[in-house]
Specification:
Length: 277
């Protein structure tokens, strides 16, 4: 039992970090569907830097790549007012393709000095608590929420809508980058193409399941972590095809998305802001 709970937390940690990053940008009205690609590129960057300069700098590199990709998405979603869904999907495809191409030289190479999984797990939980306070207990959180609910009103009160959205994308990108770094530096201390295994899409679904609330995302991430753990643990011990266990978390994601119409999303989610209109 204790082992199951521990593995649920450790496997749920990258999902939690990535969902917190996506949640932060979505609370300001920007949909981020590029999470999967951002995690993959961040995982590769973290591993590549860790091989040359140590795991600590590798983790920072992963966070830095996440911040950069968040700002990169902001250029299209905020400044150019492009369709946020298309921009995010393009970023996901770009990240997955680029990481697969650039990471070939690292395939199968183990990391000499992995970082402890427990440290990432505690950091993720701390970030969830900090984000909860930031959104609901601080003036800056009020700005974030107002931009996501009514950007025109926020603009009238002197809040820089574009500035707040860029900042949220950068901070959220950093958390997504940390999720990627966790995968290649701690959970699976190595690099393999496709190592994110759809966790980015699970994180996006979790944002909806959690109702855009950080503390609910904690419980949801650990629940998905438990499902992934059972997927491996129960294979071969019960007369059910292994493919059914492999599909279990993703079937739940589809169910969540099907029920997403009942969730209370930020009113300006997915809507570009044009000050002149």
């Amino acid at each position: 039992m204790e082992e199951a709970l521990l593995r649920a937390v450790l496997f749920g940690t990258p999902i939690l970090l990535a969902s917190l990053g996506a949640l932060l940008s979505e609370r300001t009205g920007v949909v981020n569907l590029g999470v999967e690609g951002m995690m993959a590129l961040s995982a590769l960057a973290a591993f590549a830097v860790a091989q040359e300069a140590g795991p600590a700098l590798g983790a920072l590199a992963g966070v830095g790549v996440g911040v950069f990709l968040g700002l990169f998405l902001g250029v299209f979603a905020v400044s150019l007012r492009a369709n946020q869904f298309v921009a995010g999907l393009a970023l996901a495809a770009l990240g997955l393709g680029a990481s697969g191409l650039l990471g070939k030289r690292y395939e199968g190479v183990p990391l000499a000095h992995p970082l402890p999984e427990e440290g990432f797990a505690l950091l993720a939980l701390g970030l969830a608590l900090a984000l909860h306070y930031l959104l609901l207990g601080s003036r800056f959180g009020l700005y974030l929420r107002s931009v996501g609910e009514n950007p025109k009103a926020a603009d009238l009160f002197g809040v820089s809508v574009d500035g707040v959205r860029y900042l949220a994308l950068a901070l959220g990108g950093g958390m997504i980058g940390l999720a990627g770094a966790y995968l290649s530096l701690a959970y699976r201390p190595s690099w393999t193409d496709g190592m994110t295994s759809g966790l980015g899409w699970v994180a996006i679904a979790l944002v909806i399941l959690a109702g855009w609330q950080p503390l609910r995302a904690v419980l949801g991430a650990y629940f998905f972590g438990l499902l992934f753990f059972l997927q491996f643990r129960l294979q071969g011990s019960v007369p059910i095809p292994s493919e059914a266990f492999a599909a279990m978390p993703y079937l739940l994601v589809i169910l969540v998305l099907a029920l997403s119409g009942r969730a209370r999303a930020p009113k300006a989610l997915g809507q570009p802001f044009d000050r002149g209109r």
